[in-house]
Amino acid sequence: MKKMTSQEVRQMFLDFFKSKGHTIEPSVSLVPVNDPTLLWINSGVATLKKYFDGSVIPENPRITNAQKAIRTNDIENVGKTARHHTMFEMLGNFSIGDYFRKEAIEWGFELLTSPEWYGFPVEKLYMTYYPADQDSYNRWLEVGVSPDHLIPIEDNFWEIGAGPSGPDTEIFFDRGEAFDPENVGIKLLAEDIENDRYIEIWNIVLSQFNADPSVPRSEYKELPHKNIDTGMGLERMVAVIQGAHTNFETDLFMPIIRQIEQLSGKTYDPYGDNMSFKVIADHIRSLSFAIGDGALPGNEGRGYVLRRLLRRAVMHGRKLGITDTFLYKLVKIVGDIMQSYYPEVLEKREFIEKIVKREEETFARTIDAGSKLFDDVIGKLKAANQTRLDGADIFKLYDTYGFPVELTEELAEDAGFTIDHAGFEAAMKAQQDRARAAVVKGGSMNKQSEVLTALEDASTFSYTEKTLASRLTAIVQDDQRVKTAKGTAQVVFSETPFYAEMGGQVADHGVILDAAGEVVANVTDVQKAPNGQPLHTVEILTELFEGEIYTLAIDQKRRNGVIKNHTATHLLHAALHNILGEHATQAGSLNEVDFLRFDFTHFAAVTVDELAEIERQVNEEIWNAIDVLTVETDVATAKEMGAMALFGEKYGKVVRVVTIGDYSVELCGGTHVANTSEIGLFKIVKEEGIGSGTRRIMAVTGQQAFEAFKAQEAILKDVQALVKSPQASQTVAKVENLQAELKSAQKEVESLSAKIASAQSGEIFQNVQTANGTSFIAAKVTATDAGALRNLADIWKQKNSSDVLVLVAQIGEKANLLVASQSSAIKAGNLVKALAPFIDGRGGGKPDMAMAGGTKPAGIADLLENVGANL
User: Fold this and answer.
1) Is the pLDDT of residue 391 over 90?
2) Which positions fall inside the Alanyl-transfer RNA synthetases family profile domain (predicted)?
3) Which of 54, 304, 584, 871 is the most buried (most CB within 10 A)?
């Protein structure tokens, strides 16, 4: 078995499958594109789902990749075990309807055992297979695997709901008896017992069935196009090849761990207590890559995951004695290790470090708050003579403040307390269940459409024509190809002026006319067919016939609105870069007829001044009347031109570069105006956050922008009339004067309320009653607002007139209730809830003061009579 670096292991895998005719697909962003079923890209196949379900046909049916991935469903195990990671690399080879079991098993065996490649000893490899899958069993025998190295496992069947599914066969490496101290042997593998001896290094999924949850697995139908999906974990493979005790003693992690040693002054012991080193090394990889791909720490979704990872790493840093910000110092080490295949970490190093350091500094303040909470909880337990820390409190420290359980346990033990593990586990499970329910909307692939997959009729899109004559080459109705159709159908033409929805630009609509010029169908949508042809959804008014020549005409007014908004999106993207920074990259867009929506990564709300400058800069480029030029070239040349790729787009060998002077250069397959002056006007109508680290701008152009400005002008005129300002330019000054007058009047009202309260208090506070050993005052008072009631409560508290105070006032047509308590036995919030129904009200508050509002002033007398009964 060869000794290799992680870089060599990765490259050898890709080179091997390239030699077998595979195209190497680059690793994509960890943030999924157009896939709401995934929080993160979590496997090598996750980015290829469109190929597996047949919605897109790849140029080459043989694909290989090295894909970065994140899985965070068991963060707590990172550092405890030898192989758990939050970020990892998955090496894979994939066949989309091309080769199948024979080649997949043969090539897997060749790559692993051939001296030309990895050179593993055959006797060290064991394979598991689905018991009913005798074909895989026989194929392993054919390539030279001994029968006693083939283990049937009932769970070796891959399916996630309806769609492609099938048996899988896994490959394990036997690390020997040194990792099996009780000499259990192959039983560890056969009975799926957790162990460190037999390490799974590769899984081959034989995707051959269309899973149907309504029938038994034995009745699943065969896929029209069978697929191969494999996955080899790089970290595990490198650990085996480098003879490491765990994944962490490899060249993927040790440089990070050595840096942590320098920062902490502690020494990493592969066989000792090293959990904190592992947690930090793992989590900083995830943070560096995820932030580099546009995800930012926050309070929900991906942002929450990153914040949790960072806080967990920081707390483990503290366990190692590191009290200053330090994680950001490790970003460069991560980038250096991964640079050969993932240069983006070093390219974005400054931004990643900035975000990590800022988050660390924020968390430092949170740690202080968490420590205070811990001290408060311990203080209360001591006062109550209790010796166990409740699971709910442990979880709050963990979830809200980032305290690892082991740290809380250590602090608790130092204070002489035990902790409620069962309660913590229950709270943790409840949170995980909520997270799964919130994230997983589906997950299965779509079922393959054999008809659309087989549709290979050539079709081209014309960027220049708005109307053209074209032959109808294919009609699909009810998932069947037909020669003629009425009603609703999907059709393909040899050439079309209709733009298929792509890159955020909506599809063209329009009509289909016959030779006589009569409209025979309306085009309501256009999408890309699996082989890339524009697939028109049509509502047929008469009848359509395959092979006939028809005239296709797009809705020009609709197209004009869309292209104005699309071109404005390019200008907006450039403006965001100029004003907010290079990190403000596109995270999705929609170019509609009447508006544009642009999502981008940014760590804070865009300020009013920034929005004004963005709007001004975009309009300036519109008024400069710049020609919008489009050229077709290859990707390398486009990059030399400085072209910026749009989020989520996959570009072929020939790309379109859209240039707007020296202001914007982007790769884009959409349609645009010929000159920026055609956009007319640009107006931002809304800016908001739509998720952690992601902002959204809604804007309008042309006529809609003019109407938006007119609407604002109308509002200004209404305000001008209300404040009686003779000139629009004087309106702001008028409003400011009114605000000053209002503030002065409010102070006068507050002063009068205080005097009224003081005058009333002398009489009210003398009427003290007693019920159930509690003294109380209950009275109806005169008050102009709830503030007056609070003033009376403040005076009552200073005078210490009774244990409980109940005040009710009729203000307008409503009743207001205030309850204050200085008794540990009476909670104001509870008493308010008991009394509020008398005035048809609801309310609540703290133990010492609570308030309620009601719609039934007639009930005040009854309320006051029942105060004593509720004490």
Assistant:
1) no
2) 4-711
3) 54
436 pLDDT above the threshold of 80? no
What is the domain partition of the chain in residue ranges? 6-244, 254-439, 450-554, 559-714, 765-870
CATH for 6-244 (3.30.930.10, 3.30.830.10, 1.10.10.10, 3.30.479.20): 3.30.930.10
β-pairing verdict for 495-496 and 480-482: unpaired
Q: Which secondary structure element, helix H or strand E, spans residue 644, and what is its range?
A: strand 644-645
The SS3 call for residue 587 is strand
Q: Token digits for 682?
A: 């640009």
Q: What's the pLDDT tens digit per position in 219-273?
A: 899 887 889 999 999 999 999 999 999 999 999 999 999 999 999 999 999 888 8
Start-to-end C-alpha separation, the chain: 81
C-beta of residue 336 within 8 angstroms of C-beta of residue 255: yes
Equal CATH topology for 450-554 and 765-870: no
> What is the per-residue pLDDT for 407?
66
From CA 491, how far away is CA 377, in angstroms rounded? Answer: 68
Give the alpha-carbon dihedral of 671, 675, 680, 685, to 10 degrees. 50
Hey, what CATH class is 450-554 in? mainly beta
What's the pLDDT tens digit per position in 87-114?
Answer: 999 999 999 989 999 999 999 999 999 9
Question: Are residues 322 and 279 in contact, defined by beta-carbon separation less than 8 angstroms?
Answer: no
List Cβ neighbours of 856 (8 Å cut-off, separation of 6 or more). 815, 838, 839, 840, 841
Question: Could you tell me the two tokens for 31?
Answer: 């943030």
Q: Is 153 helix (H, G, I), strand (E, B) or coil?
A: coil
Q: Which residue has the higher pLDDT, 132 or 362?
A: 132
Residue 573 among known ligand-binding residues: no
3-state secondary structure 703-744: HHHHHHHHHHHHHHHHHHHHCCCCCHHHHHHHHHHHHHHHHH
Question: What span, in angstroms and rounded, lies between the C-alpha atoms of 224 and 521?
Answer: 32
- The CATH superfamily assigned to 559-714 is Threonyl-trna Synthetase; Chain A, domain 2 (3.30.980.10)
Q: What angle do CA 73, 79, 81 make, to 5 degrees?
A: 80
User: For the segment 553-612, what is each residue's pLDDT rounded down to a tens digit?
Assistant: 999 999 999 999 999 999 999 999 999 998 888 888 899 999 999 999 888 899 999 999
Rounded-to-integer distance, Cα 12 and Cα 45, Å: 19
Parallel/antiparallel/unpaired status of strands 150-152 and 694-701? unpaired
DSSP character at residue 73: T
Rounded CA separation 61/531 (Å)? 12
Give the length of the chain. Answer: 871
Pairing of the two strands 534-545 and 460-461 = unpaired
Residue scoring higher pLDDT (794 or 691): 794
- Per the CB < 8 A criterion, the answer to whether 60 and 25 are in contact is no
C-alpha–C-alpha distance, residues 478 and 492, integer Å:
15
3-state helix, strand, coil in the chain (%, to 5): 40, 25, 30
According to DSSP, residue 459 is labeled: -
283 is in an annotated binding site: no
Q: What is the pLDDT of residue 530?
A: 86
Please indicate if the annotation marks 577 as binding a ligand. no
Q: Which CATH architecture has domain 765-870?
A: Roll (3.10)
Mind listing the pLDDT tens digit for each residue in 457-470?
A: 899 999 999 999 99
536 is in an annotated binding site: no
- Using pLDDT thresholds of 50, 70 and 90, give the confidence band for residue 772: very high
DSSP state letters, 486-540? EEEEEEEESEE-PPPPBTTBPPP-EEEE-TTS-EEEEEEEEEE-TTS-EEEEEEE
